[in-house]
Design brief:
By secondary structure, the chain is α+β, with helices and mostly antiparallel strands. Among the domains are: 111 residues; 87 residues, Immunoglobulins (Immunoglobulin-like), CATH 2.60.40.10. The protein has 3 helices and 11 strands. It has a 4-stranded antiparallel sheet, with no helix packed on it. The radius of gyration is 44 Å and the shape is elongated. It starts with a helix and ends with a strand.
Length: 309
C-alpha cells in the first residue's frame, strides 16, 4: 500500500512538472513567433513606404513652389509701373525655370502594398489532437528485472516483459552503486540479459531496465530497481611468470615468446564446485615468406589466454 501511494505521488509530481515545462516552452515559442512576424511587418512597411513618402515630398514641394509663384505673380500685377516691370521680369524668369507640369508618377492603387496576416486556425485542431494523445499512465512498467546472478567480478542481469500488449524494439539497462546518486547506461540492445563486469565484490548495486516500443522514440518508464551484489572476487592471473605479460586488470595474459612454455597460475582459488569456468585462447597468425620455404606459406602462432568470462 505504501509503495502504491509513493509511486502515485511521484507520478503526479512528474506529470505536473512535465506539463508546466511544456506550457512554458509553448508560450515561449509562440512569443518568439509573434516577434518574428511583427518584425516582418515592420520591414515590409519601411521598405514599401519610403518610395511613396519620397513621392509625396516631391509633390508637396512642387505644389508649394507653384503657390509661391502664383503669389509672386499677383504681387507683380498689383504693383506700380516700375515695380511691375521688375516684378514681372523676376516672375517670368522663375516661371521659365519651374516645370509645373512635371511631377513624379503616382503608383496605381493595385501596385501599393497592403499588408495582411494569414492565420490558419486549423493549427489549433492539430495541436489539440497531439495534446489529447500526449502522455500515458501505466499501472506498472512493461519490463521488470527477472534475475540477478553473481559471477566473479560481475553480475548477470536478466529481464522480461510483463505487458503482453507491449512490443519491445530495444532495451536499456542502467546500474549504479547504492552509494551513488547517478545511474549510468551499461547496455542498449535487443537482448534480454547482459553481464555487467567490473563489479566490486561485496558491494550493493542497483539495476533498472526500460524498453522502447516498436517504431517509437521515447523510452518506457523504468522498472522497479533491484539490488544485487557479488561475493565472488574477479579472476586474476599471478604476475611474474616468464614469457607472459598481463593486462591492467590481470584478467588477460599475453604470451610474449612463442617458444616459451611457462605455466600460468591464478592468484587465488576464486572458483568453487558448481561454478562455470570458461577459457578463451586467441591466436595471431604470422606468415613466413614463401621463398624461404620453397613456395609454401606456414602460419606461425603466438597465443594469449583470457581469464574466465
Amino acid at each position: 500500500m505504501g509503495s502504491i501511494q509513493e509511486s502515485a505521488s511521484q507520478t503526479r509530481d512528474v506529470l505536473k512538472q512535465h506539463f508546466n515545462d511544456l506550457k512554458g516552452t509553448l508560450g515561449k515559442l509562440l512569443d518568439e513567433r509573434l516577434v518574428t512576424l511583427l518584425q516582418e511587418v515592420d520591414t515590409i512597411e519601411q521598405e514599401t513606404i519610403k518610395p511613396l513618402d519620397d513621392c509625396q515630398k516631391l509633390i508637396e514641394h512642387g505644389v508649394n513652389t507653384a503657390e509661391d509663384l502664383v503669389q509672386e505673380g499677383e504681387i507683380a500685377i498689383l504693383g506700380g509701373v516700375g515695380e511691375q516691370n521688375e516684378s514681372l521680369w523676376s516672375f517670368t524668369k522663375k516661371a521659365l525655370h519651374i516645370q509645373l507640369d512635371s511631377l513624379p508618377e503616382v503608383p496605381l492603387l493595385v501596385d501599393v502594398p497592403c499588408l495582411s496576416a494569414q492565420l490558419d486556425d486549423s493549427v489549433l485542431n492539430i495541436v489539440k489532437d497531439h495534446i489529447f494523445k500526449h502522455g500515458t499512465v501505466a499501472s506498472r512498467p512493461p519490463v521488470q528485472i527477472e534475475e540477478l546472478i553473481e559471477k566473479p567480478g560481475g553480475i548477470i542481469v536478466r529481464w522480461c516483459k510483463v505487458d503482453d500488449d507491449f512490443t519491445a524494439q530495444d532495451y536499456r539497462l542502467q546500474f549504479r552503486k547504492c552509494t551513488s546518486n547517478h545511474f549510468e547506461d551499461v547496455y542498449v540492445g535487443s537482448e534480454t540479459e547482459f553481464i555487467v563486469l567490473h563489479i566490486d565484490p561485496n558491494v550493493d548495486y542497483q539495476f533498472r531496465v526500460c524498453a522502447r516500443g516498436d517504431g517509437r522514440q521515447e523510452w518506457s518508464p523504468w522498472s522497479i530497481p533491484q539490488i544485487g551484489h557479488s561475493t565472488l572476487v574477479p579472476h586474476e592471473w599471478t604476475a611474474g611468470f616468464e614469457g607472459y605479460s598481463l593486462s591492467s586488470r590481470r584478467n588477460i595474459a599475453l604470451r610474449n615468446d612463442s617458444e616459451s612454455s611457462g605455466v600460468l597460475y591464478s592468484s587465488a582459488p576464486t572458483y568453487f564446485c558448481g561454478q562455470t569456468l570458461t577459457f578463451r585462447q586467441e591466436f595471431q597468425a604470422l606468415t613466413v615468406k614463401s621463398e624461404d620455404v620453397g613456395g609454401i606459406s606456414i602460419p606461425m602462432h603466438e597465443g594469449g589466454a583470457d581469464g574466465p568470462t
